[in-house]
Structure formats: C-alpha cells, structure tokens
Amino acid sequence: MSIKGRACIVGAYEHPTRHAPDKSVAQLHAECARGALEDAGLSKDDIDGYFCSGDAPGLGPLSMIDYMDLRVRHVDSTDIGGSSYLALVSHAAQAIALGKCNIALITLAGRPRSSGMATGTAPRAGNPDQPDLEWERPYGPATANLYAMAAKRHMHEFGTTNEQLAWVKVAASHHAQYNPQAMLRDVVTVDQVLESPMVADPLHRLDCCVISDGGGALLVARPEIARELKRPVIQLLGAGEAVKGQMSGDVDLTYTGARWSGAAAFAEAGVTPADIQYASIYDSFTITVLLQLEDLGFCKKGEGGRFVMDGNLISGVGKLPFNTDGGGLCNNHPANRGGITKIIEAVRQLRGEAHPAVQVPGCTLALAQGTGGSIGTRHGSTTLILERV
C-alpha cells in the first residue's frame, strides 16, 4: 500500500540526556513519549497505536503499553536494527491508511553509555540459535571490524582514501558545534581524524559514532488531524525497506540495502535525489554515510569519496547538507536502533526549527535513511522521504 500523502508526522522529540545512570530505559521511553505529545499538543488518551523495536525493555510493546497506561488498538514491534524506526514510521502510515489507528506513538530509548557497552569494538555474543552464528563466532567479529572490511573493499575497488572518509566527520562536527546537547561539539579537521587512534584499519576513533544514553519519540497521524494542530504539516511522501545479507555467497561489500530501499522510496514519492534539499543519513561510521550516499543516488558508485570532500555535506557550504544535529558521529547514538534521531532532525529542518546556523533555507523536501545490523554481514535499510505542505 502506498503511504504517499496518507499520514503526517505531528510530534517529534529528542531526549536531551546523553548520560542517564539514574533512569531506567522504560522511564526514558515514557519521557520521550511525553515530549512528543507536548510538541504536538496532544494527550496520551489520543493515542490508539503504539510502535517500538528491540530496544524496548521487557516484553517490548506489551511492557511499554502497560507502563505508559496506553489504550491502543494497533501494535508493531519491527526489529531490523538501526533502520527499525524509519520502518516503523512507514508501518504507522500504512496502519493509519488502513484505518487501524488514527494517531500512532513511536518511542525509542537506550542506556548503552551508562551500561558501559562497547557497542562497536567487542565481539557480540549473539543468540545461540542464530543460524549463521556458528560459522562467524570463531572469528570474533566486532561491529567496527565488519564496517572496516567494507571500507577497505571500497578503497580497493574505487581508490577511496582515509582523508575522504574523514570529511564526513568534519562535516558532522561543523554542525554539532551549534547543538548544546551534542556529545562532541568541537570542530575537527581532517588531520585530527587521521591522527586519532586506529580502531579497526582503516577506521580511526573519530570515524566511529559516539555512544550515548537517550532516546526520542514521534507521533504519526491522519492528515486531517495534522491540519487541525498548530504545527507545520509534515507529510510522508515515500518509503522503502530492504534487507541485505550474505545472498547465498554472492557477497559484495561495496553497496548497502539503500540501493533498493532508496529506489523504492523515490519511486513512491515521485521525486529524484536531485530534488532533496536535506538528508539525514545513518552514521554509525564514516564509511556508512559514504556508501549510502552512493546507493541512494546522490552520486555514482565509487564517487562517494570525492562527493563528501571539501565540505560538500556542510550546511551553507555544500550541495547536500546532512545530519545538521551532528548525527551519530557527534551528537548521540542512544541505542543500536538509533535511526529515530534521523527522522527527528529531518522534521526540524522541514519545520524550520533547526539551529539558524545550520537551517537549510526554505527546506520543503527531506530524506531520512537508516541502516541497521552490519554492512559487513547482514543489515536492514529503510528510506523515508518527507515533505512540508
């Protein structure tokens, strides 16, 4: 079912904390929900659909619906890693179009920083029933290593350089300096990225995202409801979802599932990459951004390194402003499914509510892209295209 024009984002909230040792994950979910409701001018009694992913504690939606005392008639708990929350926005729009609910609440929260999680450098234990684990666990794969493999392959195939990857971090840092909540607010140079400690060759420490506590929430509603609220109307134009794995041995680390999710979203929306004025791109690592920019069609395959150079991603300087909150590389990454922050910043840009120093003038069309899992093994990809009307 097409979601084009069938639902709108009416509430958006990002939790200001980056370190919450005194709060539970459930409490963070609830505080994010309250923030989104206040942003929209709605109450919890207006909610009749609830959506979350694997970051939700206990029994997921069952636990959170009870904890927040919601009365809902539609529930979804899709889990495809960092792309989950973009997929959940699409699923909420589909549910609204089908009459399953009128106002959907979507919440994310996590405490990896307070829990001391080495989310990128420690081998993941995984579920012993995971069908691929017995073949991969002997090699002790860690997230950073798996992304480093993709970076190395891209360098081998296309001549991409460490300096080019570093420009992604430089752009994020230029934006983060204006975000008082960002974990890393200092503007960095290419040399500083390259001089930071090596984590997994060729990725340095500053090529990797931060680890934070926090969360966010969104409210998706019928267009008629959106028009009645005192907020700019941000409608969903298109969405695409994809999963890329080992493909029965046909492994190619030079592209991601964004190749398919992006094409589907653009086709549904009826727009092209050239029409996009702002892009929120999932940035677990600098290579993650470069690959997705290529796969979404902002540049040709193999040209991502040249595309991101010389500040091309910096608002007011380059042709494609990205992650104007500082993104996961500088602002926050509150859970392994942190893609909700990509949607929140896209909403800010479309509302004209980003920081004046990074606000894209007259922004009416934005893209949000999420990648979850590992581009070195298997991952989900979701693309959303949003419009201010």
Description of the molecule:
The protein is an alpha/beta fold. Helices cover 33% and strands 17% of the residues. It has helices at 25-40, 61-67, 84-97, 133-136, 143-158, 162-176, 190-195, 223-228, 258-269, 286-295, 304-308, 327-330, 340-351; strands spanning 8-14, 49-51, 74-76, 103-110, 198-200, 203-204, 214-221, 234-244, 278-281, 365-373, 379-388. The strands form two sheets. The chain has a nine-stranded mixed beta sheet with strand order 3-2-4-7-1-8-11-10-9, sandwiched between helices. A two-stranded antiparallel ribbon has the order 5-6. A hairpin with a 2-residue loop joins strand 5 and strand 6. Helix 6 (162-176) packs across helix 10. The longest helix has 16 residues, at 25-40.
Summarize the structure.
The protein has 389 residues and is α/β, with parallel strands linked by helices. The protein has helices at residues 25-40, 61-67, 84-97, 133-136, 143-158, 162-176, 190-195, 223-228, 258-269, 286-295, 304-308, 327-330, 340-351; strands spanning 8-14, 49-51, 74-76, 103-110, 198-200, 203-204, 214-221, 234-244, 278-281, 365-373, 379-388.
